[in-house]
Amino acid sequence: MAQRVRSLAREFGFQRCGITDIELGQDEAHLRDWLAKGLYGSMDWMARHGELRARPGDLHPGTVRVISVGLDYGRDSDEAWATLDDSERAYVARYALGRDYHKLMRQRLQRLADRIAEEVGPFGHRVFVDSAPVLERALARNAGLGWIGKHTCLIDKDGGSFFFIGEIYVDLPFPIDTPASAHCGTCRKCIDICPTQAIIAPYRLDARRCIAYLTIEHEGSIPEDLRAPIGNRIFGCDDCQLICPWNKFAKRTDEADFRARNDLDKATLVQLFAWSEEEFLQRTEGTAIRRSGHERWLRNIAVALGNARGSADVVAQVIAALESRRESASPMVREHIEWALRQHQAG
Q: Oligomeric state and partners (predicted)?
């Protein structure tokens, strides 16, 4: 039946599937230390549900195994680097360019669970896709999907790291898979390339410095010393994954749902800064970007506009875009606009 589960997972579009038990003792200790150092920033829910993340049996009583799956979303890395090198354009993390993965994966996982029930009868289970306190990367590693790299992302030797993870907690005592072994070796490219030096040690991320945290999770003002390193990244950051040698030769599946919408892989900062709140909500419907809200969207783009460089005509357009929102923006966004204008005055 475990073999059947893996076969069914691939039928439902998952490129990876493995099964593990619920023992996460070492990972719980690592998490506890990370929380104790306050490296989670303002993500209070991380501390609030800390121990529960490492105890699947407490989160969903009766759980004895976890079915872990992976779904590709990766794109051409050369295209991503080209966007990062063009300060007029906006960089959006590759996972957020298309449809929000949460609903898509949850539907597929539930269908997988339903099919398993058809073959074995009713069983206790619960589906998770980044929707509850779950140590999903540790579980995926133990299920053989990949190892946790020094940048804290999961890496599959054949598929790289550009894939989503989801789980089904089950009360069925399936045989378990062999955990993935690590293959980072002495490489530290992900650590060295991080624009804000958020990877403070191998396998240790300071979320407070991470561009993904600053542009997505963080609700207030972005610290001034971190604004310039953000560059043109307006929603998330992929540098540590793009530089990873395992992604260079990865074979990934092109999932149509995750292809870029609204030309977000080509749009300029000036174009996106002009979106009204109504337009923002309409264009980001069904995507992960919408959760950041229009105010943070403008805040992030204001920072990127402050970092934009180019010809005199380009800079003039950037300044005009900033000035156009100077008076109507919220106090938080206005503060970032003023900073951006000062960068161009200084330049």
A: Monomer.
